[in-house]
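Q: For a teaching session next week I want to show students how multiple molecules come together into a single three-dimensional assembly. I've collected the sequence lines for a complex. Could you give me the predicted structure tokens for the whole thing so I can convert them for display?
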Amino acid sequence: MNNLVRISKDNDVAVITIDNPPVNALGPGLPEGVLAAIDEINGDPAVKAAVVIGGGRTFVAGADIKEFGKMTSGGPRRSLLPLLLRIEDSGKPVVMAIHGSAFGGGLELAMAGHYRVASPTAQVGQPEVNLGIIPGAGGTQRLPRLVGVAKAVEMCAGGKPVSAREAAALGLVDRLIEGDLLAGAVAFAREVAGKPAPKTRARAEKLGPAAETAAIFAAARDAAAKKQRGLKAPLAAIDAVEAGTKLPFEEGCQAEAKLFTECLFSDQSKALIHVFFGEREVAKIPDIPKETALIPVNSVAVVGSGTMGGGIAMVFANAGIPVLLKDVDEAALNLGMEKIRKNYASSVQRGRFTQAFVDERLKLITPVPDYDAFSVVDMVIEAVFEGMALKKKVFADLDRVCRPGAILASNTSTLDIDEIAGSTSRPEAVIGTHFFSPANVMRLLEIVRGKKSSKEVIATCMQLSKKLGKIGVLVGNCRGFVGNRMFGPYRREAQFLVEEGAEVEAVDKALVDFGMAMGPLATGDLAGLDVGWRIRKEYRHLEKPGIRQPFAEDRLCELGRYGQKTLKGWYRYDENRRASADPEVTALVQKWSADSGIPQRLISAAEIVDRCIYALVNEGARILEEGYALRAVDIDIIYLNGYGFPAYRGGPMWHADTVGLQKVYQRVCEFHKQHGELWEPAPLLQRLAEEGKTFAEFDKEQVAAA
Ligand code: 3H9
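A: Of course. Below is the structure for the complete assembly, covering every listed component.
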């Protein structure tokens, strides 16, 4: 044994405890420790059976993900397969006792045991595809032997865990243990001691005849192509399970190992591992220590019951936090509540929530026409129309009615938080919480730090985002903050491309093929082209004269083409909001471009992608250098969770690193030459490119310096 694995005895049952906090990841030494313990019990005549259990809060959360980066950069390759075989060959039964999660290599370890017992709250799964890899220690071979081919394909290709109850129904878990897991597992071990120990790899009864399984694999490939568009790992996982149904166990494992290695060394896996750690990294704020006192948030109020306000109220209600929802009068409130009810009804229809859950949530939302009850709430989120004068008035009112210590948050997407905070006597309590639309669906929450926002308020909002099921990213107070500030140049280029002769659908298609959830022009139609148009009109005075600005979208708005809501925008929409190309738009843009003397040309998909994506990267680099984002990875997490950037490319900054910053910089310089000032390379991009560095290295330097 070693310091990661302990062995103790409960009379004739040995208890092997895995102890590698926080999640018992299978780092170097751990599997070897388990094996040494198994060898020891096999040599001890007093022991009749063994229980393997996780110390702390979980069984085993899988391989140590940090090790993968070492392997792909030349470090030693470690395979768990032979170790698991030897556990399975143990002459004495091994009972795996699962609480918390048995994920990835954790479930593979559990399946190499002869029996599995679990706490009812435990979860088991093969989530490797979320990291761009597949199970690599026999998971694709043992799982179908325990749960059948269809379920194994679903779990290995989809990556979603199943509850212990479902696992028990599937035959993956042999017994659920209510109460003390260890005591139950030991009792179970005593029951099976002395009986022949079943080896998972020797079981074939659930593998099914080839004629039946062929249809399962075909359907799974179809589903993966649609639901996990562009991802390679799900298809590899399906291939590996299929190999398991056609080959003897050992050969199936070899096929799995080959596919695992291919995936592990792919750019997709590197990107998704970056995302895994990035999602945890963004919670770490260098100048805000972990021990910062949190403000309890047990009740909130939302001002404004429109689309955003209503969605935000639902977010809090879904997390079990009571919400007051305020609007100017009863009519507005009725409309707001009606929309909330409609949204919940559609969630019930789609099977996301039960009616009982929704009924409980609705009870938590109380519409109010005034501020009378605001004096008791812990936090207020203002979600009124985007206009500085109105927001300032609301905050002055909040300052008057809210209790000292309450958090005053604005859901602004563009406005200056410091100016808003200035209308109160307590700017330290003011912060931005920029939800993304629809607020009850989108995972991203930009938390905007004002000059005077207190550390307690920031720490509380970061923590709260988790409770709300969001991923909170702290950003600085610049126009558009991080996400929308970058989205400007991205959408500007999309429009320029159309004005230079690209078809509307060609621009969107190139970016969808790149992996974006939606094309930039279709996104504009969905959000409403008039939103940007109004903002541009308000800020026109800030535009530098003599610099090319896109005009097509403004002119479409002047013609009343606001997008989906008017059934006309960049596209034409039928009554079900299905889009089709609109030749009228092509003709109009051609005419406007000719009037403005913009030469028309054929534009390749590659140029479309470079122009739009490098516009994101260049602006991202500027934001990073100016300190409005803490790290490049924060920008990546924002883009993945708020803007439909493909996770398998890791986010715009990681993508740029993958392409190579020298190459990206060179392309930005070319665009600068061709298109002028708007493409001036960000100094940070230039510096990193010249030094042969990456944004990821820049992040490491920042962390080291903090
Ligand atoms: C695999 O197993 C491949 C196999 O087929 C074998 C092939 C040979 N490794 O998420 P949390 C860290 S692939 C390293 O905040 P929670 C995490 O970074 C793996 N580190 O806690 C964080 O660190 P920090 C398949 C890991 O309670 C800390 O632990 N398995 C790992 O909200 C706490 O994590 C998976 O994909 C790991 N495996 O959630 C499961 N896991 O505090 C990945 C966590 O410094 N893990 N860390 O930021 C999870 O899904 C969640 O962590 C879990 C707990 C649900 C377990």
